[in-house]
Amino acid sequence: MTAGDCGSTILPAARISRIRRGEAQRAAQLLGASYRCLGERDLLVLYDAPTIRKVLELVRQVDPDLVLTHSQVDYMVDHETTGRLTQTGCFAAMAPNFRTGARRPAKATRAVPHLYYAQPFGGRDIQGDEIRSRVYVDITSTFELKERMLACHASQQAWLRAQQEIPRPQDPLHEMATHAGTLSGFRLAEGFRQHLGQGFPQNNLLGRLLGDLVRVVES
Question: Can you say how many angstroms the Cα of residue 97 is from the centroid of all Cα atoms in its chain?
Answer without folding.
Answer: 28
